[in-house]
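Contributing new records

If you add data, match the layout below exactly. Sequence lines come first and carry their own label; structure lines follow with theirs. Keep one chain per record. Anything else will be rejected by the validation script.
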Amino acid sequence: MEEWTISEMQAKMQSGEMGARQLAEKYLDRIEGLDRNGPMLNSIIELNPDALAISEELDEERAQGQLHGPLHGIPIIIKDNIDTADRMTTTAGSLALEGSIAAQDAFLVTRLREAGAVILGKANLSEWANFRSTHSVSGWSSRGGQTLNPYALDRSPCGSSSGSAVAVAANLCAGAVGTETDGSIICPSQTNGIVGIKPTLGLVSRSGVIPIAHSQDSAGPMARTVTDAAILLAAMTGIDPRDQATSAGLAYTDYTQFLVKEGLKGARIGVARNYFGTHPLVDKIIENCLEAIKALGAELIDPANIKNTIKMEKTELDVLFYEFKNDLNIYLSNLGHDVPVHSLDEVIAFNERYQSKIMTFFGQERMLKAQEKGPLTEKAYLKALDTNHRLSRDEGIDATLKKYNLDAIVAPSGNPAWLVDYINGDCGSGGSSSPAAVAGYPNITVPAGFVHGLPVGISFFGKAYSEPVLIRLAFAFEQAVQARWPPQFQPSVDLSQLLKQ
């Protein structure tokens, strides 16, 4: 079952070779062997106790000719900061929310269920979506422990959607859902050798997702192929009365229509050279990718740098601090009385009270900084938000696209996985996610190659709601390059082989 696509699974179920229950059982067995035992990837924080019963119901509906869509019976993993109104909890990996069961599904979960997906379980993540400490360790949470990178078990899976990426890479599910504020879909996807789509802000509803910042938060699909990611994306979108950002109604019900093998022919692609130079071997891989893109008929405009990438670092963080306090307080205030925390202030106090379990390796500096902020009516916040949008949109991505008449921009998605380090924390990914993240624009990462056995990706990003264009370009690239191969769960990078080279 390794590397099965959604279409292949559907064909097997349609032919009667297997049912949704058998498919779910196969994945549950694989989770038991690889995630709980064996290499102990620790990517799944909780399994759905009703997954097999749901699968049986879907089998019965299939037998009666009642199909929900392309996800009918397909096992999906979702990140543990996304609400499910079932017997699973939603905790953002924090012991402070242990036992919290949502009153209703996140809108995207409702959409997935309507599409026939089987929510197999919840994925571990970097606690509070990596917005707790300046020295956090990606893939670690106080509730779930440390998620491991399946390509080298001593390496970081990146975050915060660590478990989602690892579960997909290790073939523990057909696909997964992650969330991103800045880099949390793109980085773990590229670091674990899969496809990740960070959609335009508002294409996928944010309601029912434990927030960091409403001006940047977005949930998106993570899969082994562009095709599977496109299928998942369509199933997640829709207009949600609980999220005004979705009211534009610019989502497609089918993104597979944009999967064109000749999709790069005639495209004008800008190369953001200001995101090169952080790792020579990554640069070499991306240069080869650029040659492949040219060979597929695209015109490269090189360089086509994005301005202001450094200027917006401070204002981005300021906005995140303000919105984190505001948005998290709203989410927590609506939780039931069985949960011990109902505000950011109470989360901070809870973490202090149980610091031996929660702050063993790193603190909560970002939470403390956010707690100092005032309401969203403050001029400092409004000015920072306006600056973010101006620098990332008007003078950033939009300006670059217009200046060079581009269809999209490409850049390295990031550097290879670094060693897990509980003393110093993460060492940085060298990623290019920030312009699209701050602007609220779409970004797709696709496997590009390997550095000594560790995956790296290439990112395609563009203007708001340009997912159809980006999917077309990414698919054409993927089909020609075919850079992904599955992990072998090595304990570490084989240094003896490196020394022989």
